[in-house]
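Narrative progress, year one. The postdoctoral researcher (J.K.) led the effort to move from monomer predictions toward full complexes, under supervision of the PI. The following entry was the first complex the group processed end to end, covering 1438 residues in total.
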Amino acid sequence: MSFKREGDDWSQLNVLKKRRVGDLLASYIPEDEVLMLRDGRFACAICPHRPILDTLAMLTAHRGGKKHLSSLQLFYGKNQSGKEMEQNPRPQNELKKEGTKLEAPLLTQTRLITQSALHRAPHYNSCCRRKHRPEAPSPSISCSPLPAQEIEFQSEKISREPEPRSGLQAKESTTASAPAPISPTRRQALDRYLTLRSSGWIPDGEGRWVKDENVEFDSDEEEPPDLLLD
Amino acid sequence: MFLYNLTLQRATGISFAIHGNFSGTKQQEIVVSRGKILELLRPDPNTGKVHTLLTVEVFGVIRSLMAFRLTGGTKDYIVVGSDSGRIVILEYQPSKNMFEKIHQETFGKSGCRRIVPGQFLAVDPKGRAVMISAIEKQKLVYILNRDAAARLTISSPLEAHKANTLVYHVVGVDVGFENPMFACLEMDYEEADNDPTGEAAANTQQTLTFYELDLGLNHVVRKYSEPLEEHGNFLITVPGGSDGPSGVLICSENYITYKNFGDQPDIRCPIPRRRNDLDDPERGMIFVCSATHKTKSMFFFLAQTEQGDIFKITLETDEDMVTEIRLKYFDTVPVAAAMCVLKTGFLFVASEFGNHYLYQIAHLGDDDEEPEFSSAMPLEEGDTFFFQPRPLKNLVLVDELDSLSPILFCQIADLANEDTPQLYVACGRGPRSSLRVLRHGLEVSEMAVSELPGNPNAVWTVRRHIEDEFDAYIIVSFVNATLVLSIGETVEEVTDSGFLGTTPTLSCSLLGDDALVQVYPDGIRHIRADKRVNEWKTPGKKTIVKCAVNQRQVVIALTGGELVYFEMDPSGQLNEYTERKEMSADVVCMSLQRSRFPGCGLWTYCRIISDPSDCLQPLSMQALPAQPESLCIVEMGGTEKQDELGERGSIGFLYLNIGLQNGVLLRTVLDPVTGDLSDTRTRYLGSRPVKLFRVRMQGQEAVLAMSSRSWLSYSYQSRFHLTPLSYETLEFASGFASEQCPEGIVAISTNTLRILALEKLGAVFNQVAFPLQYTPRKFVIHPESNNLIIIETDHNAYTEATKAQRKQQMAEEMVEAAGEDERELAAEMAAAFLNENLPESIFGAPKAGNGQWASVIRVMNPIQGNTLDLVQLEQNEAAFSVAVCRFSNTGEDWYVLVGVAKDLILNPRSVAGGFVYTYKLVNNGEKLEFLHKTPVEEVPAAIAPFQGRVLIGVGKLLRVYDLGKKKLLRKCENKHIANYISGIQTIGHRVIVSDVQESFIWVRYKRNENQLIIFADDTYPRWVTTASLLDYDTVAGADKFGNICVVRLPPNTNDEVDEDPTGNKALWDRGLLNGASQKAEVIMNYHVGETVLSLQKTTLIPGGSESLVYTTLSGGIGILVPFTSHEDHDFFQHVEMHLRSEHPPLCGRDHLSFRSYYFPVKNVIDGDLCEQFNSMEPNKQKNVSEELDRTPPEVSKKLEDIRTRYAF
């Protein structure tokens, strides 16, 4: 069997080419705009109805759609009003590039080119990294009732290597003020939320906690322990 | 990442053992196979110690091993059946100390295949032919002969194939000088295969088939075949020709049967059983191994049952017709994989599990009260004889060879606070299992310790005559006196030796044939054999500061740096050489080589000074980094020893060892002609100045170096070893030889004189063993108290409670079965039976039957080895996993969780469920307090602490449990693991699950959703046994086929994956073939060749770099170390490449294909192959090193360097 393409049907070739380009371009989809599922499919995180798309091509097509674009506006509008500092990643990227250009543009460029020529694969670093590109806004998890910032706080705890993080902050300071430190009470509240959630309590949306039916509890456990403490 | 594989300790389990005169002398040797290693052992008939002469790794699986001797020859050859698809005949060359491949004939594909021969070997007892057989169908016969130059020749193969036939065992029948004959246990399954009703399968019988090699026709015929009543498991050849009746003994379940051609009727005798055995009485009994002893006048067999009882089997004959088989209980030893009876009266027992033993056969058991069972005794069918097992009577244990096999689990940690970490190894099986603590160092056996009146400075031993084998005096020097002790039956002080006792001694030695010399600060005292004394006094105010003495020469250094040289003339007079030599500085230390060089060390310089014919001319000089403390010139390496045939092997190099004051030892090669110094190797030994002493070890010179720790530098099997002694600090030492201890050391330590022996040369680790009750499966270390919590589980075993209950029941039955008048006697017998307690470590534990499990949980102090707490589980509860952890909702308390399977039947697999026992560790980690027991559906085979809770693998379910009041509470679950979770590793929010069959699965725990989500997995099926995390993305794992791999998540892996939020997950919605969408990459693959059961990333030496340490089921310990530079990697890659072609493996398996047995080898260089460079012939070494643009010493230095950088 050969993986070489046989035949000379140009239309098919063009389709493949287009798909390949689409695949390559797809990597420019910001990570918070799409969710990768366990089975390798994608869910659009922008649209409120969370459509599931089987392939990258379908996702790209979806992202070009009218519905998505209107949701996008809504989404970023909300995000910006919510956090102020967040902006579209592209201009940020430009900004960063400009910042570096100031020193020695030609040198930087050459260095980049040689780097990309020498290291075809990214250099392996055994330290744990954040999986987000610095220009991407902080990840948000769609179905979570928590605002994105809380999740960020959580993932910050996991993160072992502060460099990318500090880079992000440094860059952010050029565009907006650094996020305000979380107050101890807020931290406590977040902690309690996560503790309860991980021990099987589910918020019912009305400020009360109910038991997850798939989770076991002690027989005398009727209410979440924290509430009892309060 | 490129790794280099090094074996620290070779496998210790033995799979085959054969004996013969392999070196061609009268002495018998043993050749053992340890899976992929061939080893030649020689039991010393005088001391009873077993010495290893040669160890060779063959990079192939040795499947069968046989010794044969050509008719009329005196030397035995070794024929090896391996997975190489080749038959290999080896000869041991004592002069070079190596196995030489004489013949290598290819007959089939490589690998352990069903129809490619190699599994069974049989030789004609007269050495005329060898049969090599596969498990099925194929058998080949090779004719062995001599050519005109008396060299062994081998014919082309003769086929004796029969399709659809399974083979169980093959032996050569002793038919004297008639046509060679082979007997074969076979089963023809053709009919059974073609009969769909299954009736034929039920009726298929095993057959005993004889194959005859017709030497006239050059052809093999299937001569005769006979169905057997019982299913046989192996055959024993009965001596024939002029030595016996010929024929074979068939060992089968419960019976042993004699068969032969012609009119000979079958003689059958049941295998006797233990009286009042707790085993299931319905269970059959088989012989598992045998050894034959044959002299000119008689022969007998020793056969061992699966319980370890050895029977002596003799045959009664009447005119070449066997009339009777007689069995007599001989003794009980651990169950063996192979036994050898040597002509010198030793029995070598290669144990199936655990240590191997050498016994002296003290009695043949001919005239004792032990009952003899005979086939002539009338017995009903199904009935058998009974005997009473007892402690050893006919055998005397003379030596024990340590064996770690099987290693079930290992953890490396410095629990004893010794700077260097110790290896805690759970090994053994059943009642012979143990926890062993391994430390790097040579085991020292203390022969004697005696206190002295003061603190001595130095000690020497001298012989009285040059031809004496043993030393006569021990001379101990104090600050102002010298004590002389004579060595005899006891060690006593003497005053008539001629030594001056009122002064300290600087050195003493035997001079000439029978004179002695004592050097003391004010002069030299020459004591002649007739006790005449000549003295030489130092001139004026000068004193002797240093001296060097040998059997002909004395060199002294006076204060001020003056050297005076004395030499003995033919009349035995010690003459001063006329010219004295002024050195430019004070002499710090001196050493004298036997004939030529006195070396002498000065402040920061080391000079080699030539002999007096050149008037003490400086030959060479070496600058040293610090002031030297002592010097020692020795001849090491090569096989200096003269072998029994009088051939002299290659001479080793001269080495100048320099001990420095800063604790560093330098070893430099000294050119024997020019005195040039080259190839210096450095090693830090300890914090104190290094003192050096020349001693003899296994007939070769070695150097004892003393710093804050004592080290022995010696050459062993063409490799240099510098090993610390596992002993307290010593101050001064000297070689020591006496009748009781031919190669010992006499040493001083504070105010004691010690006589020590170093017996286990070549061993890297010394071990301390603490016995356990059942097979240890796993253990964990309690981080606060450093105590170990061990789970021990045995299948086919009774718990103590059940055992006691069964014993009671049997005693009651005994009494009930007795008649009225015998009641009293029966009661007495029952009481005796209840009181009798045979140690299970020797006699084995009773076998309870399939599906019967026994387990204990033990808390043990790893330093003292005492059991602090022991929890016995109920019958049929099998502990499989253990973890020690804290729960976030209970604060500082430590808990021990034990996963237990209930009523597990292995085949066909069924399980009634499982439990997780929760214990609280109380009393400072010394006691287990039972908390609760959580029932689960399947076997909880893996437990790991995770974010203040625990992850438990219950069968194929991965769950998070939290501590509850009445049980553990299930908080979260993932059901998508493929088969069975065999291990769990965690890092951050990631969980790496090893599946028993499907390699690794990466799971992410999402706390805010309380979900476990699979986000990546591996692309290869791996039957993972153990795993170890290397970093956040990388995991190393081993599988049950003996491979080690490292897999890593690619850098763009996203672990923020989500479950499908719509929730409408359908059957087709699960990714490709149920796999995860992201895949790990393979970084490295390597076939070790032995099942690896533990992996740990750790540093083995203080200040060393990290390496991946693995232990194997066969008792081997190895490491994989990363290369730090591309140059190194490149160099070793080339070494490996050249060795593959220049020094191919001994048994014909291709090295590259062996290391790629299951997965193509990737990014690993085999250090074991590279280190074989040292055992290659010098001209080949030269060729290879020339290709590498280096010299042979440079190559071996690099090999040594990489080893010492990471380990020992």
